[in-house]
Structure formats: structure tokens, C-alpha cells
Amino acid sequence: MRPTIYGLGEPRGPDFRPAPPPPAWPPPAEPAPTTPYAATARQGWGRPVGVVALLLAAMLAGAAGGRLADAEPAPPRQSTAGPVSGPGDLSDIAARVQPSVVSIEVRSGSGRGTGSGFVFDRSGHVLTNAHVVDGGGDIGVVLSDRRRLDAELVGADHAQDLAVLKIDASDGPAPLAFGRSADVRVGDPVLALGSPLGLAGTVTGGIVSALSREVRLGDRGSRPALQTDASINPGNSGGPLVNTRGEVIGVNTAIATLGGGGGGGGSIGIGFAIPVDRAVDGAQRIIR
Predict the structure, then answer these.
(1) 125 labelled catalytic
(2) Does the annotation mark 209 as catalytic?
(3) Model confidence at 185: pLDDT above 90
(4) Mean pLDDT over residues 3-25, rounded?
(5) Is residue 161 among the annotated active site residues?
(6) What is the C-alpha to C-alpha distance for residues 134 and 149, in angstroms, rounded to an integer?
(7) 213: CB partners within 8 A, 6+ apart
(8) Can you identify the CATH homologous superfamily of domain 96-166?
(9) 239-261 pLDDT tens trace
(10) Residue extent(s) of CATH 2.40.10.10 domains in the chain
(11) CATH class of the region 181-287
């Protein structure tokens, strides 16, 4: 079937009225001035107008403007709750969060895998998904400045799909701040950060689409997850989902796809993140 192309052809229909023809060009010559003021008026405004008429028009315009100003409603009272974060602030949030987001490389006998993570605390712990580091092998963490650091697997909770790595704290960036699951609302703007398809330093934006979506995570059935339309693709797993204050509100972990299975179909605008309260509790248990 041929695609429909819009914007071509002549507009028709009962409500369509063609525009009037454009005025002739060049315009007809103006009649010669009949008052001694015409030349002065022409010099200032581009066409002959009497000075008295100009003054009268200005007075009428001023009076009308005064009446309009009097009828203008009072401006709305500004909120005292502080500035509201919006799309214009997201670039600042991304710049502040990105240094603490890492790419994770796993080399094993079965090949090479990639994922994402972020610095969890000042001790050099990095939080990611358990499925990112499945199979073990040589694990490396690549920072935003492209330095590659060796990482040790501290432990993993496959039921929660969480894992913690350890890097040298002196080489690691500052940890991210964490929000609270109770403060997250449907419609909140969010950013997803990570390395989808190996593209390190990728930032995508969207909103929180649902709060407690039952999703199969890990190896022990379904669990409540945040749903977002921020674009999440293979390789984003383990990266942070942050709000407009730069606080982590979830750990990106899964996507819905149309066929293909295994997430190979890419993002269709339905992604899932482990809620922050559960992620923090799980990471602390692994570290202990």
C-alpha cells in the first residue's frame, strides 16, 4: 500500500475559502501632498499624514491603552516552594550525574558482556544488575573519563537482580544521592543513564509511567517495579533512573519488547526499574 502524503494538491472543502489575491506590485503612485506638513510626515513615517491627525491618533491610542491596562488581571501569585524543575534543567542534572555512572565490561570464556552501574557509596561500591555479571570472569569498570578500573564482585542477589562490585575508592567518583520510593509519582520527569548497546554516556528522558507494575525480575517470580517511557535498551541494565534533583529513584533492569525475546527487540517505550528503597536495602545486605 502506498503511503499517504500530506501537504500536496489544492485545498478543497465546504469550509475552505481561498485567500484574497495579493495587492498589485508595485503599488500605485500616491497623490501629490496637499498640505505643507506632508513632506515632514513622509520623512518620519513613510507616507503623508497630517500632524494634527497623528497627534489625535496618539492621544486616542494612549487612552485606549490606559483602559486596557486597567482591565488587565493581576499577575498570579508566585509559589514560594522554590523553582520547579523542567526540561530546561535536565542538561544540568545529566552533567552532575554522569561522572558517577559507569560502564561494566565482563570478559569470560563465553565472550564479552556489557552493562551499566553507578557508584553506590564512598567505599568504592558500584551497584548494578545481577544478570550483568552472570558467569563471572574478568570484570572491569569504565568511568566517564574513559579510565578502566579492575572490579571485584562483592556479591549478587539473583532474586532481586542486584549485584555489587568493588573498585578502589581513591579512584572512584563520588556516589550518587538517593531519593525515596514514597516520593515518586506517576508523571514525574526522569532520566535514564547508562551504556545501551555499548554507547557509554547515553542519557534518555521520559516520565514515570506506573509505580507498582508486576514484572518478572531475577529468578523468583514477579516483583513490583517502576515503569518508565525513558528509552532503555540492552546495556542500560544496572544504570540509574534519576529524578530532576539528580536522585536515584530506581535501577534500570528490564524492557518490554515486541517479539524476539531476550530484550533484543530494543526499546518500545516500556522500561522497568527496581524501586530505590528495595535497591538500597538489597545492596546493603550484599555488602554486609
Answers:
(1) no
(2) no
(3) yes
(4) 47
(5) yes
(6) 19
(7) 224, 225, 226, 227, 272
(8) Trypsin-like serine proteases (2.40.10.10)
(9) 999 999 999 999 999 988 776 54
(10) 96-166, 181-287
(11) mainly beta
